[in-house]
């Protein structure tokens, strides 16, 4: 996502800096292909107008803390935007860190697929007191949408949306596998084709698309469960979804037997 958004910005004439500290060869190749320039943290703070944090959710907190104090001391203070799929409580913790340093923070959420070519690309939702300062990004090919709410509102939107879309993928995956184990897979697919053809067509795309992403969805499901609240029993659904995606991720890294069973169901 980060390299795709950077590529769109560079095509619009924007100079995009990125930190490649600790990144592997593939990340460096993607950055180069997107037209990004490597910069150390100080150069990012000195030259950037906006810092977009687009990293795996588990790295979001560390990256925010890494920049908060440096931004707070800077005479020129870029706006730091956390665009990651983190929990509302995690975002609140990041806000506390930034408040202590005096650095400016916006809560961001990206909904949709990485931009390609001239397609519209994903929607970028921003919330917080400084969110309106990001409206200008729309001039550079990004779909910017301002959420009228505090820090945490954009993250809540992202979690709610993912809870529906990725939650539906988890439910479909669990039921396909259960039906296959019980010998009812073919009958289930026939019934879906007759009574829910649109849903079956959606699953034919979204289930295989999920395989390489499952490892990234584990923490997101835990964040959704926390967002709902432990006092509500429905939060347990997303703990189960996290376990399912963890199992799929292990399968992708292993013999892919589980993925093959899903593929066989969809192809039958």
From TrEMBL:
| InterPro entries xrefs | 6-PGluconate_DH-like_C_sf (IPR008927), 6PGD_dom2 (IPR013328), NAD(P)-bd_dom_sf (IPR036291), Pgluconate_DH_NAD-bd_C (IPR015814)
Question: What does UniProt give as the signal peptide span?
Answer: none
Name the Pfam families for this protein: DUF1932
Domain of life of the organism encoding this protein: Bacteria
Which residues are in the Phosphogluconate dehydrogenase NAD-binding putative C-terminal domain? 179-248
**Name assigned to this protein:** 6-phosphogluconate dehydrogenase
* Upper lineage: Bacteria, Pseudomonadati, Pseudomonadota, Alphaproteobacteria, Hyphomicrobiales
């Amino acid at each position: 996502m980060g390299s795709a958004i950077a590529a769109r910005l560079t095509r619009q004439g924007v100079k995009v800096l990125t930190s490649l500290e600790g990144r592997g060869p593939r990340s460096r190749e993607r950055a180069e292909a997107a037209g990004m320039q490597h910069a150390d943290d100080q150069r990012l703070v000195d030259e950037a107008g906006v810092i977009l944090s687009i990293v795996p959710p588990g790295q979001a907190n560390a990256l925010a803390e890494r920049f908060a104090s440096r931004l707070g001391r800077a005479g020129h203070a870029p706006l730091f935007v956390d665009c990651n799929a983190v929990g509302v409580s995690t975002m609140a913790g990041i806000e506390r860190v930034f408040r202590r340093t005096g650095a400016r923070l916006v809560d961001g959420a990206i909904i949709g697929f990485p931009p390609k070519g001239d397609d519209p690309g994903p929607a970028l939702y921003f919330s917080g007191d400084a969110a309106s300062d990001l409206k200008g990004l729309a001039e550079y090919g990004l779909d910017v949408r301002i959420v009228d709410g505090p820090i945490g509102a954009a993250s809540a939107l992202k979690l709610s949306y993912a809870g529906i879309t990725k939650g539906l993928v988890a439910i479909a995956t669990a039921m396909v596998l259960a039906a296959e184990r019980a010998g009812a897979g073919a009958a289930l697919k026939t019934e879906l084709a007759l009574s829910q053809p649109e849903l079956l067509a959606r699953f034919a795309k979204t289930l295989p698309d999920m395989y390489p992403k499952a490892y990234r969805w584990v923490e997101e499901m835990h964040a959704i469960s926390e967002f709902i609240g432990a006092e509500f029993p429905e939060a347990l659904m997303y703990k189960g979804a996290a376990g399912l995606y963890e199992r799929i991720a292990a399968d992708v890294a292993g013999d892919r037997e589980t993925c093959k069973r899903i593929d066989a169901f969809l192809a039958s």
